[in-house]
Amino acid sequence: MSLNASDLTFLQQSLPFWNRLPEQEKKLVESSASVRSYQAGSSLHNGSADCTGLFIVKSGQIRTFILSDSGREITLFRLFERDICIFSASCMLKNIRFEVFIEAAQDSETILIPTAVYKELNHSSIAVSNYTNQLLSSRFSDVVWLMEQILFMSFDRRLASFLIEESAISGGDILPTTHEEIAKNMGTAREVVTRMLRYFQSEGLVRLSRGKIKILKRKKLEALSVQASNSDKN
């Protein structure tokens, strides 16, 4: 679907380099960009077989993840309104090949800049090239931080951190999620998540119900999460 006036304004405001593009390149982006909507669970990018382009998130939530040989998922990072997804155009980047999968974690609307167009901008504009490098650096930092968590943080602390993060995203103490969804995000088995959540419930930290988790003792969860962060620094 082509862009309307509101979409164009959103596109211009979301790209930090927009005002540094010559008029001809601005028109190229505006004429080639399109709006794409995705239902929760649908795929935006299916590994190295896809190279769709650069996605800008208009609404919803996008999840980027990798798959193990056994089919287990682990979320690398999530993207929200005005965040930009670069890995869906990774084929244009030399020597960077990732078997990364991208899906809509919620019903989402995006603006897509096709790979060929963004590649042209990246080659012709220093501002775009610098931004691409900054964006890649930021995403790699996210991945390294995740790997540090997996390698050096105990699972109870990781789960406490995850629940606090989910609470910030949802804006309250009731988290609409399942044990399976948490396991997918954290790259572990559902049984491991269930066992630890039941332990948290026995300690009075949370209350479990079908499709929901309610945080009862936020300060204790936060203390466990902070303790985890401090352990990483030592």
Q: Nutshell version of this structure?
A:
This protein is an alpha+beta fold. It contains eight helices and eleven strands.
Q: Into which percentage range does the β-strand content fall?
A: 15-25%
Low-confidence stretches: 228-234
Taken from the alpha-carbon principal axes, the silhouette is: elongated
Tell me the structural class: alpha+beta
* Largest sheet features: 4 strands, antiparallel
| Helix count, DSSP H or I runs of 4 or more residues | 8
Strand arrangement within the widest β-sheet reads: 1-8-3-6
Percent of residues in helices: 40-55%
Distance between the termini: 51 Å
Number of strands: 11
Could you tell me the mean pLDDT? 89
Give, in order, the helices and strands: HHEEEEEEEEHHHEHHEEH
Radius of gyration: 20 Å
Tell me what you see in this structure.
This protein has 234 residues and is α+β, with helices and mostly antiparallel strands. The strands form three sheets. Strands 1-8-3-6 form a four-stranded antiparallel β-sheet. Strand 4 and strand 5 form a beta hairpin. The radius of gyration is 20 Å and the shape is elongated.
Provide the fold topology.
Blueprint: H1 5-14, H2 23-32, E1 34-38, E2 43-46, E3 53-59, E4 62-67, E5 73-79, E6 84-85, E7 101-104, E8 108-114, H3 115-124, H4 126-152, H5 155-170, E9 174-175, H6 179-186, H7 190-202, E10 206-209, E11 212-215, H8 218-233
Antiparallel strand pairs: 1-8, 2-7, 3-6, 3-8, 4-5, 4-7, 9-11, 10-11
Helix pairs in contact: 3-4, 5-8, 6-7
Task: From the structure above, extract its key features.
single chain; alpha+beta; 234 residues; 22% strand; 4-stranded antiparallel sheet
